[in-house]
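dumping these here so i dont lose them again. two proteins, back to back, each one seq then structure tokens. dont judge the mess
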Amino acid sequence: MVRVRVVRHSGLRRRALRRRALWGGGEVLVTVGVVLLLLVVHQVWWTNREARAGADREVRALERAWGGGGGGGGGDGDSGTAVPATSATPVPSPDSAPGSSGSAGSSAGTGRRSAAESSPTPDWSRAYAILTIPRLHLRVPVAEGVSKSGVLNKGYVGHYPGTQQPGQAGNFALAGHRNTHGEPFRYVNRLARGDTVRVETRSATYTYAVDRTLPQTAAHDGSVVRPIPRSTVRPGHGYTEPGYYLTLTTCTPEYTSKYRLVVWGKLVSMRPR
């Protein structure tokens, strides 16, 4: 007696549906993976490429507007006006020039005063200075404000509103991306005590020397950009006396924005243009 195998079409349909579901799910996963890969490439590579190119163009435009070359003024050991790193006396008013307490009738004293007193009042989000850090081979424009879309995502370094301008008594505080969009502050953690940082404006070049580093603090630790910078989260870090300070801030650890890395410097010289 011959047995005839009965094929149940419902079972075949279920298996076919499972295969189609698995195939469709695989296609979705591959598509999502490709999209995510493209996003990573865009964030890590393309935004850096575009921002760096734009920042370089802006640096060249500022140099042309100031009538200078690409080398930047006031390097290590320059002959500019020396400025005390700290002072036991009260800080002068923000508009006064460091080292301008010489004879009022001397042309050198007049030059020093005019250079600092003419510190620019920048337009919002427009580049008005150039930051140079020789150790990092970095040369980028500085713009007013720290918004991502208006300043930081352009590859610029942003000046914290309400802090002082270059060469003025108090704290000239800057922010920059550590990753993506030009990442100008990618390696600021490598700066060591004594490394120089130059800030060029239309009127003068200011040279700061790196003094201290705060490797990690909370994102809300706004006291690090006060006129006398000192961390309230990490009280042992910062200063207690007035001076002419530079503050560089960025996110840490890399590829996160959970904490802030802070580098402080002190003004050591000023060279009028």
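---- next one ----
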Amino acid sequence: MEIGQLYRSVRGRFREAGLETPDLDARLLVSAALDLPVSALLLQERDPAAPEAVAQAERHAHKRLAGMPVGRILGEREFYGRRFLLNEATLEPRPDTETLVDAVLDRCGAQEAPVICDIGTGSGAIAVTLLAERPLSRMVGVDLSEEALSCALRNAELHEVADRFVPVCADYTSALKPAADCPLGRGFDWVVSNPPYIRTSVLAGLSREVIQHDPILALDGGEDGLAAYARIVADAAQLLASGGRIALEIGYDQAGDLKKLLRHHDFVAIEIIRDLSGNNRVALARKR
């Protein structure tokens, strides 16, 4: 079988199954099976595909048609132009979360060496990206899962920022000292997080790609979807230096609740940032 025939065969089945992005999924899975760049599917479409590569592509296709996301099949996902490894304890980083990274980078301004805390770091996609984009920054990545932290550390090593990344296994920020007791002499410049924010009652209605393959711990935001925010905002008020900022990914309908919560903890300069689809996606605020 030629490479082009293999790709078109997989693509056709994905289209017939009604997958959301059949062409892209087919390109990624077939090129991975062939161990070729995506561009080679066209440039080398008349070359023969090795039988073992064809068999691997068929295994990938079978898993995708069974509902497994491409990132889970390949064990990695692109985020902010970088490759991130995944494991069972981590969420797949979504493009919408790049809005949070952009918001933080845009507001760092001349602050070249911010000290940041990423709560619920998971794969480390946010933390590692910020470290890579701000080469003098330092990061504490907190997660309750040791398996997730292991993945985050591997990604930090992959992108050569591990010397500035400190993984901490803890329930939220229970292992961190408040700003007044911080050995740095001040608190964090930023607290960032993409916490679980889906209402418990909504979980059962999520797509099988999400509910069967993403860790529930990283999805379930409690009865009102605000449980994690209440803890993170309260903790951030203690951890941030004066004038420090908080940046949180939020659900499309949670802006009003987050504004109230941030005001309650004496945060000011509150902003709600929309993603490329026009949905509310990030809440930003500054500590007095």
